[in-house]
Design brief:
This protein has helices at residues 3-34, 38-65, 71-95, 104-125, 132-148. With 162 residues, it is mainly α. Helix 2 (38-65) packs antiparallel against helix 3 (71-95), helix 2 (38-65) runs antiparallel to helix 5 (132-148) and helix 3 runs antiparallel to helix 4. The radius of gyration is 23 Å and the shape is elongated.
Length: 162
């Protein structure tokens, strides 16, 4: 056995053993910094509740005033109902966040994109005009959530408005 030839492999193996715990600690530290805690967590929980209520209200209003007509109306209703289910799920998961943390900023971004898509469809098709104020309220709550997660400050809130 040629010890000098195996020495680089041993050194590499030992080096990896020293590096991996450091990388794991760095990852854990990064994860802990991204967690919502204290006032930010409390505020996000509150906003999740409000968002759920407002999205459910918008869905109920759309369902109550639907003409039970064509395919387009059904498609819009399905989109509104889908968003309301997403917000209910977000609300439930936010209530359990401390026990099971997850990517809240990513989810808020996803909800913002979906809410704006629904908002554009409703406005473009001029359907459920009575829900427009409800959707404005949904978008306002999402703007507040984005600020809590550090996405932007109050001066930039217009960025997500239609």
């Amino acid at each position: 056995m040629h010890f000098p030839q195996i020495l680089p492999a041993i050194m590499a193996f030992v080096g990896m053993g020293l590096f991996l715990p450091t990388a794991a600690r760095a990852h854990d530290t990064h994860e802990r910094q991204d967690r919502l805690e204290g006032r930010a967590y409390d505020r996000m929980r509150e906003l999740a509740h409000v968002l759920d209520e407002r999205a459910q209200h918008a869905a109920d209003q759309a369902a109550d005033t639907a003409h039970h007509g064509g395919r387009d109306e059904r498609r819009f209703l399905d989109t509104v109902f889908h968003f309301a289910r997403q917000t209910a799920d977000f609300h439930r998961r936010m209530d359990r966040y401390r026990e099971s943390p997850w990517d809240v900023p990513g989810e808020v971004g996803h909800l913002i994109r979906d809410a704006h898509q629904v908002n554009r469809r409703i406005h473009d098709a001029h359907v459920f005009e009575h829900t427009w104020d409800d959707w404005d309220a949904v978008l306002d709550v999402l703007d507040q959530m984005q600020r809590v997660t550090g996405g932007f400050d109050d001066r930039d809130s217009h960025r997500f408005r239609d």
